[in-house]
Design a protein that fits this description.
Blueprint: E1 48-58, E2 64-74, E3 82-91, E4 96-105, E5 115-119, E6 122-126, E7 132-138, E8 142-150, E9 155-156, E10 162-163, E11 170-186, E12 189-204, E13 214-222, E14 227-234, E15 240-248, E16 254-258, H1 259-262, E17 264-268, E18 271-273, E19 280-282, E20 285-289, E21 294-300, E22 306-307, E23 317-328, E24 331-342
Antiparallel strand pairs: 1-2, 1-12, 2-3, 3-4, 5-6, 6-7, 7-8, 8-11, 9-11, 10-11, 11-12, 13-14, 13-24, 14-15, 15-16, 17-20, 18-19, 20-21, 21-23, 22-23, 23-24
Length: 355
Amino acid sequence: MLLTLLATVGCVKSAEQRDVTTGAIPNPTATPAPVSFPQDEQAHDSRLEWWYHSGHLESESGREFGFHFVVFKSDDGLSEPNLVAQLGLLDLETGKHYDLSRAEAGFRSSGDSELSIEIANWVYGIGGRPGSHGFAVTTDEVSMKLSLTAASPVMLHNEIGWIPSEAGASYYYSWPRQDAVGLLILDGERIGLTGTGWFDHQWGDFFVLGKPAGWQWFAIQLDDGGSLMITEARGIDGVMVDTYGTYMSTEGEAKILRQESGGIELTATGEWTSPTTDATYPSGWTLRIDSLDLSLTLEPVIKNQEVQSGLPAVSAYWEGKARASGHQNGEPITANAYAELSGYVDPGPIEWMQR
């Protein structure tokens, strides 16, 4: 059943204070506090924060879907935080990708260990048990309720869940495998769903700068039960500044992957240009990680999985379901994956410069 989506009990600006940085300029060298649960599943007093889900679902008849659900919270420190929620839903039977959103200022919390966020008529809930989440989305096209429960240990990125960068630092952890159960109503048809999700939570006093800065990010669920996150980040000049990741074995042991020691090689094999934003995204990749003796080829299941709804056009990104195959330790392996491609949309001319 869907995680109980808690009744809201009053407006708050933050569920917890974080004295990580001060002033207008992000400080990536600030000393981080240890990530702890269930407190850090909740909201923080930070410039940016997001709760992000993606995953792979099936109906009882074997009909496949991919989904991406995220709640973004931004806070300028002057007023109540602003919220945007997005749902990307891919129906593999029809090839249709639904791009849906809601936006609303304000934030409501139900307590220290449980959280309910309302964005218009959408609801996102976090339970008191770490790794327990749920959402309910209603639109004219799609209604969807999904409950997600952690089926793996937590994955702290960069060993302690803290990622420094030139645009500021952020806390960052994942539940790389969640059991998903829910209900989808699509074109009047009720479809029961089960599957596997991936959850990311990231927050801090940092900026998302936009093109040419950005990233390629991959959440890969290997068919042997292993889980892999890989990020390739570009700096303000568009040059790749870091490639890093985290691998979790089937036994739940985490291994930190770094470019300088892990031999990570990510190569795009194709590209796709959006007919809406004119952005050209990488499309298809090879990934080699020497320290894992792993090589994969990843391909999107369809090309057009761009997400635009609810954000300015310049903030559009590609978020899509992919499949992977290759070898690890000399044995064949396959995987389901989600890829996120950010910072590929041109900002366009400034209006006053055109006069």
